[in-house]
Structures are given as C-alpha cells and as structure tokens.
C-alpha cells in the first residue's frame, strides 16, 4: 500500500495530469472489480466517470509511465472483435498478416481499427485474476482476455447471455484428452478454442438422425482452422486432445442471433493510430514506440504542415534576438493548439511544423485556431511579423522510426507538405479528402466558412488534385 501511495504521489506531481481522472483511477483500483482493472478502455472509462476523454487518456499514459498500469497493444479481428495477438510494446508487432479462426478471415494489421491500446493494473498496485489468465473461468477468459475492449459486453447477465448460445464447454490441461457428448441442433455450430484461436465449423442440416457420430479435434499451435463439416441433427461425440503446453478451453457455440447480438454491440476504444497522434504519448514515449525495421500501415491519418512566410526577411527586419523570440513564441502557441485538438507535433524543421491528427476535423480546428493566434500575436506587436502558411491533407501512410523518433512516410505526407507550400498567410489550404469529411464540413459550416476549390499541379504528382482555400 505504501508503494501505491508513493506512485500516486509521483503521478500527481505531473502538472498536466487531470486530478479528477487521477481520483477516478485511484478509486477504481481500490474498489473496482477485478475485471474492471483488466485491459481498461480509456475512452469508455472517461465516459463512465464523466471525464474529459483526452485528459483521461493522458492520465492513463502518465500512470503507466510511473508503474501504475501496464500498457497492452492488442491486434484485433475487425469482424468478431477478438484479440488475435497481444504485445507489451508496439515494437513487437511484426507479423504481416493475422488470421481469425472464428471469422475464418485473414487480415493485414493497420493501426486504425485493428490495434487497440489498453491499460491493466500493475501487480505492484493490486493483484487481479487476469494476471494469471490461464486460471480464469471460461466465461471470464472470453470477457477479459479474448474479446477486445471495443466489444460492449454486458455488465449484468453476461454469463446468462453467453449460455444462450453455448451448447457445451470443457477445460483441458496440457496433454489431457476428453470426450464431449452433445446433441446437434439444426444450426450452424462452431467448436471454438480461444487460447489457441482454433475453430471447427459444423453446418448442421437435413433430417435428424439417432446415429451417434464421432469427431476428433486436436489443439496445437499449428492447425487452427479446419474445413467446414456437414452433419445431420442428432448425437455427436467429440474427442478432444490438448497438445499444447497450457490449458485450453474448447466451447461449442450456436452461430445464431444470440452470438451476433453479443458481438454486434461496439463502443469506441483507444486505437494505436489515435495514441500515436497524442502529444502526451509522444512526449513520454519518444524513443520507445517503433522498431527501426517496422513499417506499420495506417489507413487514414491527417497531416498539418505550417511554415512562416518571409522568416528570413523577419530576421533582417527586426534583428536576430527579437526574431528568435517571436519564432519561439509562435512554436509554443502551435504546440499548445495541436495538443488541445488531440494532435501531436511530429517534428519541426526550421520554422516549419509537421503535426498529425486522427481525424481531419481536428486538424482544421487546429488550423483555424493557429490562424487566429498568429493574428493576435501580430496585433499585440503592431506588425505583421508572423505570417503563417498552413496546409492540410489526409490519407494512407506508413508509421516508421527515423532518427530515433516515430515518423511517417508516404505520398500523403508529400502532398500535405506541398499543399502547405501553396498557401499564403491569409488562407488555409486543404485537400478534398479533408473538406469532404462530414465532421470537417460541419465545423466549417458552424464558422460560416465556404471552401473555394481549384485544381492545382504539385511537384512529383502526376495528376492535378483539388485543393480548397479556406478563407
């Protein structure tokens, strides 16, 4: 308990951590059920406790940094929401493709919706059942370990709702064999094992029979998917063998409406993409994100580039010292605005800033605030010293590690940079991918701003693209 108090005292010393979020975290660790402290969904936690989402995510990151939580990077199946792989750091996510046996689909991982980031209380703070997942009862293994935090599982009657589509289940120790007798209904049946992610599909149809059939299933790490079998309704004897070095939990499910109802309820969760665009994360984990050989795909990320127009003339006009103070003040303002709009500054190059946002609307909101802030700084000085050019573009990219920091690579980055070069100090330039976003359109409408389109040619881009001036 003394160590826990020391860690929370250390956490409270971080001036940018929300005290209400800290109080909610401390209360949950002290009073919450074990399952509430396993793979915590930070956005859902914020919603439950009436907290600001971004400040809550920041609090969890700081808490993990001091040792209160362990961070987990989980690769998800976008179909069923199952966790296909778990990593203590993003650096160990190295596979090019993952297969979900339950959905019988293969997926190339992207950081958008296929990698979630969760927080589990450290054993130093409190021991919970999920610290020994292979001792969890089957239903709790599914709830706490197999399904991702984005699957909105019911708090009440969870076991009852699982039993609605479960025909049978059994636990097998390493090397153990068993026989599971069941009565096959006229349904599509799945024999699913969540530890090895193994599945056997049985399409049950036709006339019922009293003949007892037999099915043998072996659980190991190499054979996780078998061909679908067709059987008639009636008795079935399933012989099971565990050839792994850990226990397995085979269960027989009816793939009907009750199962789909459980899997169909989803909620927002903290994606890897969103965390990589979080300024607190970049500040705390600057050199501990990606391995130098990793190339992780992001389906869509929004890039904002800024640059000061005429900065060389500024140094000539007001002198090096005054110009340096102005440029430093401009950088501080931009960093604050990016963080406030849930973005992150990737790097600064000379007088330019490269920032990322999870969604286009947050980038445009930041751009509008930046323009207003520069006008305020100019009004304060009585001169038009800070003339900021802003360009915004969204699209696919690859997250990489360059010069010991997390960076991005791809055509989207190149286009965003060149769109910024088109801008002048009175307007923000954005591409169609940005202004066509529904949330961006709502934001511009609320601010009575109408983007003006024009076709432009960009160096290195074969086709003309539509660029919009935001006046």
Automatic annotation (TrEMBL):
GO BP terms, alphabetized: cAMP biosynthetic process; intracellular signal transduction
Pfam families, per database record: DUF5939 (PF19363), Guanylate_cyc (PF00211)
Gene3D superfamilies associated with the record: Nucleotide cyclase
GO molecular function: adenylate cyclase activity
SUPFAM superfamilies: Nucleotide cyclase (SSF55073)
Annotated Guanylate cyclase domain residues: 302-420
Protein's recorded name: Adenylate cyclase
Lineage: Bacteria, Pseudomonadati, Pseudomonadota, Alphaproteobacteria, Hyphomicrobiales
